[in-house]
Structure formats: C-alpha cells, structure tokens
Amino acid sequence: MEEQNLHDHKQERWIIVILAFMQFAHILDFVIMMPLGPFFMQEFKINSLQFGILVSVYTFSAGIFGLLGAFYLDRYDRKFAAIFVFSGFTFGTIFCAFAPDYNTLLVARAVAGGFGGIIGAVVLAIIGDIIPFFRRGKATGAVMSAFSIASVIGIPIGMILAENFGWHAPFLALGILSLAFIPLSYKILPTMRLHLEGIDSTKPAWNSISIVLSRKNSYLVFLFLTCLMFGGFTIIPFLTPYMVGNVGLQMNELKYIYLFGGLFTFFSMNIIGKLSDRFGKQKIFTFVAILSWAPVLFVTNMTTTPLALTLTVTTIFMVLVSGRIVPAFAIITSTVEPQLRGSFMSITSSVQQLASGLASFLAGTIIYEVGNHTLVNYNIVGYIAVIASMISVFLVWKLKTAH
User: Fold this and answer.
1) pLDDT at site 41
2) How far apart are the first and last CA of the chain?
3) Which residue has the higher pLDDT, 46 or 25?
4) Rounded to an integer, what distance in angstroms lies between the CA atom of residue 355 and that of residue 141?
5) Does CATH number 1.20.1250.20 belong to domain 3-191+207-396?
C-alpha cells in the first residue's frame, strides 16, 4: 500500500503547495539565467560559448549530485531529504548573489545546481508515493506549473531587480525567500517513511541502483528523457539573446516573453495534466509534442519581427514545449515501484540535468555571434530539437509503467 493512504485530500493539497514552491525556487534559479544572458555577456565580456557554459555548469553539477543522491534518497525519510537538499540549494543561491566575477559565479552555479537538481528528484518521488496513478497527471501538472509561476512572477520581478540593482539582486531576493521558507516546509511536510519498509538496511546502497540499472525499461526512460531535454534546451538558453540580437527586441521588453508565456502555461500545464489522466498520458504527450514542432522551427528562424507577433509565437512555443513535460514525468514516475522510486528518480534527474547541460553546451558550440550581437546558426539547433522530439514520440510508447 502506497503512502497516499495516510493523507486526506486537504493535507495532500498543502503538500502539493510545498512541493510546487520547491520546484518554483529551483526552476526560477535556473531559468532566470536565460533572460539575464545579455546582462552577463555585456558585464563579463563573454561570448555565447562562455554563456552556454555558465548555463550548463548548473545542469552538469545537478547531474553529478543526482547520481550521488541515487545511493541514499530511498534510505531516508522523504521529508528530511527534501528539507536537506532545499537548504543546500538556498545556500548556493545566496552564494551566487555575492559572486564578484565570472569564475566565482561558475562555482556558485555549480553548488546551487548540485542541490537544485536533487530537489526535482525528491519532489517527483514524493508525488509518486502519495498520489495514486489515476490522479498523478493532475498533481504533476500542478507542481510543474511552478515553471509558469516562475515565468509570470519570478522572471519579470527578477529582471526589474536586475535592471535597477544589477544581476546580483534576483539571486539575493530568491535566496532570502527560500531561507524564510525552510521552517514552513518543516512544519507542513509530513513524515514519509513508508517506502523504507521495502528496503533492507543491511544491504549496500548500491543494491537498489543495481536493480534499476538491470532493467531494459530504465534505459528506455533515460533515452526518452535525453531526447525530451534536447527538444527544448538546445533552444531555450539562447532564446533571449536571439530575440535581442536577431529579432529586434529591447532589453526591457524581454520580460514580456516570460510574462505572457508563463501566464498561458500556468493554465495549459494544468489542463494538459487533467487531459493526460482522462485520455492517456502517452496519447497526450504525442499530441502536444507533434504540435510543438511548428513553433520550434518558427522561433529559431525568426528575423526582425513586431513585438506583438514575437510574443504570440514565443508564448505558443512555451505552452507546447513545456506542455510535453507534464505527461512525460507522470509516465516516468510510474515506471518503477515505490521502494526504488527515490533512487530511480534521482538517476533520471541526473540524466535530465546532464542532457540539459549537454544540449546547452552543444548549442553553444553551434551558435556564434557576429557584429551587433547577432546570433548565427540558431536555426540549426531548431532542427536538432525537432529531430530529438520526434524520437521521444517514438520512445514514449515503448515505456512500461508499474504504477
């Protein structure tokens, strides 16, 4: 019997709120780098490849820490694990706020990413433990809508802070908010130890990982997740520099991309989650992924474009590219039993972060900057993203769920 039987619906809703905030904080910490790209490139005098490294170091670190977390996540109370990694993330974010130069910021981003990446694994493991399969799409959509809230509220506020007080300010504000949130998390999150009943503490930590890695289905999940990340993170890190250098947006107009995109995805991700529960998660994933191909190609081939049309296209892009994530992760959390879910989700989180970092790094090697900050070869990464998305549509039907 899974953990969800211990909680009534009211308590479950509060747990979802807590998990959504944790997602919000670490997602905002990551995505705020994208619109701040022009700030970093100008202040540190760095090129697109160096900026790509600044973005990808977060995900590479998250991948490495995720592998380490896979050894231990299933051996501790989920509450303890969640608060511990969130505290480490908070320290890393505050460290970013006080970084005086490019190299120090790289180190700070690695610290924040290391803990931030594990947050996602813990959150998804908790959802898998306490939410039954038939409502898991809705719950995943609610938690994943943290991306939308980060876009609607976090990024515009972060950019206003950056424009008025410098790029350090958004990280400091987020760090202080996260620090204040830790006691609230301790109070509201319940003890979650039911998954420990299936674990033999006398066996080495490697045991659960070896079971996960012995299954063919696990590797299909890893490949599916890699393609999913390449379908988005070859494009997203360079979206705002491209909008400024090639499409003609002003720096103070960038916030509107995330404001409108986030506002619409807040509703669309919840709708997609409910549709996934009703019509089938594979079907909805396939439908949304196929629809996303057109805006991906449009965004990566844009030239000088009026603001209204630009915002329309980028909003559709965000709705569909982010919309794939909801059914995808609802499926992934259901491919393993509760006793292995923490380790499995930590490994998948590691794969996700490494794939995201590799996608960003690859894009940085393909894209280069010419005069007046114009980016070249952005269309090529768009083609790569569509091909990766096509492969993910094929793979999603090969995955086996354990509920």
Assistant:
1) 78
2) 12
3) 25
4) 22
5) yes
